[in-house]
Write a structure and sequence with these properties.
The protein is of the alpha+beta class. It has eight helices and 20 strands. The chain is globular, with a radius of gyration of 20 Å.
Length: 338
């Protein structure tokens, strides 16, 4: 029997630990339970929000609708070839746990994405990425429920329209679907990417052997040093995206700021490290009352106590204004703001 709660606090369901409530609240463990909830007459006219671990969201006010927690579990190998494995993963599986599972199976490719917070279902929405690797490189299909038709549907990789931290699920299908399962194609042979200088440096300093396991451990070491554990210090991970600029603009910026950090994104564009922009605008370690910027990672905004979502958003807007004035670059939020 599905239980729909009323006026549920969301403090335990978002990693910023912002204390707001939702009008209605329910948890689903499989597709049938989800459809039962969607058919409930109580919520027919209500706005729907799907939450995983709440690691990429900032609540700034009461949510006037229903929050659904995706708890669909399960990992299975659908088929294998000599070189690849096609793995089906429930959207409610923890992402990092899936990364560890894949490596334990001897698969390679997603080790660079270790310790990214959140659930598997968020990986195609955000097209999560780190250290030169993005989820779109491995996703073959995404299964979902159409909220209006209440039907099962599937999109191929191409149909997902992946882009940098973007997909069809953040645009055309935003708030219209619930992802239930994601299919990944993983390599049985080493498929390593150590193009990011910080990762290469970590490997050079800790091991002489480049392997899936050593890359995994290096990524975990880097992230643990730079990023606060949301269970200990409430935060939403990287608050801003790394901005893309033209090669021409990057050269102009580098002439003025020789130490600026950037990576080639395409033949025409460079990806600038947003953390560097924020740090060099003087924000790293900033703290005012109950919110601030992490001392080791300028991309991370922190709730030090009883900060509201509005407090954190106001800080983000100050940072954006500062970066715009100094570099003529408009930062874009990676976190969803509600």
């Amino acid at each position: 029997m599905i239980s729909i709660q009323h006026n549920q606090s969301l403090k335990s369901y978002n990693t910023f630990k912002v204390d707001v409530c939702t009008k209605y609240f329910a948890v689903f463990n499989n597709v049938n339970e989800l459809i039962d909830i969607l058919n409930n007459e109580i919520i027919q006219e209500e706005k729907i929000l799907i939450l995983g671990e709440g690691s990429n969201i900032l609540f700034t006010k009461y949510f006037n609708g229903i929050v659904l927690i995706n708890n669909i579990k399960g990992i299975k190998i659908n088929k294998e070839t000599k070189q690849e494995a096609f793995v089906s993963v429930g959207a409610g599986e923890n992402w990092h746990a899936f990364v560890l599972w894949s490596i334990k199976q001897g698969f390679s490719g997603i080790e660079n994405l270790a310790l990214i917070p959140g659930l598997v279902g968020a990986s195609p929405i955000q097209n999560i990425g780190a250290y030169g690797v993005e989820a779109q490189e491995f996703i073959t299909e995404v299964k979902y429920i159409d909220l209006k038709a209440k039907e099962k549907k599937i999109l191929t990789n191409e149909e997902c329209k992946f882009d940098y931290r973007d997909s069809i699920f953040k645009n055309k299908l935003k708030n219209k679907v619930v992802i239930t399962e994601v299919i990944y194609r993983l390599s049985k042979k080493p498929k390593h990417n150590i193009s990011y200088s910080v990762l290469k440096k970590e490997l050079e300093e800790t091991t002489q052997i480049i392997s899936t396991e050593s890359i995994l451990n290096s990524v975990i070491n880097i992230r643990n040093r730079k990023l606060p554990n949301p269970k200990e210090i409430p935060n939403g991970g990287s608050f801003f995206k790394n901005p893309l600029v033209s090669n021409t603009k990057f050269k102009t910026l580098r002439n003025k700021f020789p130490n600026i950090i950037g990576y080639k994104s395409s033949e025409k564009n460079m990806k600038i490290a947003a953390a560097w922009l924020i740090d060099n605008a003087g924000w790293k370690g900033y703290k005012k009352e109950n919110c601030g910027v992490h001392k080791n990672q300028a991309l991370v905004l922190i709730n030090y106590g009883t900060a509201t979502g509005r407090d954190i958003l106001n800080l983000a807007m100050q940072i954006k204004k500062s970066v715009q004035q100094k570099y003529n670059i408009t930062l874009e939020e990676e976190v969803t703001i509600l």
